């Protein structure tokens, strides 16, 4: 049955047939948009995230341009850490760089609880956005404990997470204390966004795919579950890169919708999570530069594969590359809206 009362994204997340197949893009408000580059001139990333007017404008840009079915709150996973006093800077071409990496128990003292008063600019921006968006849902987001911990322990981006994994298995007490603090911070950051009007959230565990399933379930999953359990009053999307082998466990951590990257088809992903959880994804971002007929066919294939789940939110398998032609994203949205329900119905009837 089609639910005309719910916005398409919220209907799909609830396993209810939407009025159209919803679509949004990770990193949809970003460097691929010339209007984004224009308003960001002279502002660092973290400065931008603390400016409610700028956050509102940047968040709305892809909704205006692409007519996507959700806005994703413009922020960064480092924002709550910066707000509580962690020395962190986002360096161009590098990513987050931590002033004093976590090495021992004494370093955890900086990770105090996040209070709403620490991020009043988030509350203000969300309220402004909700007023502008109308029926279009705003998705709040935060980084998962493992991904945040990896930056704090490594001191910045890493290719192998050597220090992080070593701490996780060799110093489990320190690791669990670190992740428990981070779980509370991420949950509080999401709660601020929800209380101000966000109608859905996404927990990014961007680097969980670097883990074995054994280590994920033992050392990481409980902390992600702790975050998600505290925000169960809105639909929760759980996403990681390279997490095909972890999808069932990430779903058990508390996902209402499981985000899937491009490495595994959505029909297989749906099967891995038991066929009862909506999926999100999973167009390969690298294909956005392919000729339109080729890309369009891949989008249709993704919609058909997503029909094997009780709900499907079309997205990329990761973020929009900076050199993407924005017109391509708009064409994808138009295709999904025009053909999505028909393709889904055909596949489900086959």
Give a written overview of the molecule.
The protein is α/β, with parallel strands linked by helices. The protein has one domain (8-349): TIM Barrel (Alpha-Beta Barrel), CATH 3.20.20. 47% of the residues lie in helices and 11% in strands. The strands form 2 sheets. A 7-stranded parallel β-sheet has the order 1-4-5-6-7-8-9. Strands 2-3 form a two-stranded antiparallel sheet. α4 packs parallel to α6 (120-133), α9 (172-196) runs parallel beside α10 and α12 runs parallel beside α13. The longest helix has 25 residues, at 172-196.
Summarize the topology:
Elements: H1 8-13, H2 34-40, H3 45-49, H4 52-66, E1 71-72, H5 79-83, E2 88-91, E3 95-98, H6 120-133, E4 138-143, H7 145-154, H8 162-170, H9 172-196, E5 200-204, H10 213-229, E6 236-239, H11 247-252, E7 257-259, H12 266-272, E8 279-283, H13 292-306, E9 312-316, H14 326-349
Parallel strand pairs: 1-4, 4-5, 5-6, 6-7, 7-8, 8-9
Antiparallel strand pairs: 2-3
């Amino acid at each position: 049955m089609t639910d005309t009362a719910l916005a398409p994204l919220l209907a799909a997340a609830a396993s209810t047939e939407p009025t159209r197949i919803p679509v949004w893009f990770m990193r949809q408000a970003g460097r691929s948009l010339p209007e984004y580059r224009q308003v960001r001139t002279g502002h660092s990333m973290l400065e931008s995230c603390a400016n409610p007017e700028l956050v509102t404008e940047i968040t709305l840009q892809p909704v205006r341009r692409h007519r996507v079915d959700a806005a994703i709150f413009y922020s960064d996973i480092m924002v709550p850490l910066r707000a509580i006093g962690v020395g962190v800077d986002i360096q161009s071409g590098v990513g987050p760089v931590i002033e004093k990496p976590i090495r021992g128990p004494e370093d955890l003292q900086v990770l105090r609880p996040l209070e709403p008063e620490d991020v009043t600019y988030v509350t203000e921006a969300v309220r402004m956005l909700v007023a502008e968006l109308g029926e279009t849902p705003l998705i709040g987001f935060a980084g998962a404990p493992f991904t945040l911990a990896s930056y704090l322990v490594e001191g910045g981006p890493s290719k192998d997470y050597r220090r992080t994994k070593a701490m996780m298995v060799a110093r489990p007490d320190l690791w669990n204390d670190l992740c428990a603090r981070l779980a509370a911070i991420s949950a509080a950051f999401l709660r601020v966004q929800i209380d101000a009007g966000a109608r859905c959230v996404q927990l990014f565990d961007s680097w969980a795919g670097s883990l074995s399933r054994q280590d994920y379930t033992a050392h990481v999953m409980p902390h992600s579950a702790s975050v998600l359990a505290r925000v169960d009053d809105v639909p929760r999307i759980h996403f990681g890169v390279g997490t095909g082998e972890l999808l069932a466990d990430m779903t058990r951590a508390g996902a209402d919708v499981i985000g899937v990257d491009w490495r595994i088809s959505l029909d297989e992903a749906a099967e891995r999570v038991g066929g009862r959880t909506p999926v999100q994804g999973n167009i390969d971002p690298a294909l956005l530069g392919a000729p339109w007929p080729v890309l369009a066919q891949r989008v249709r294939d993704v919609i058909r594969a997503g029909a094997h789940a009780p709900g499907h939110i079309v997205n990329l398998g990761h973020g929009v590359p900076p050199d993407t032609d924005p017109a391509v994203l708009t064409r994808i949205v138009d295709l999904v809206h025009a053909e999505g329900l028909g393709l889904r119905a055909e596949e489900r009837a086959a």
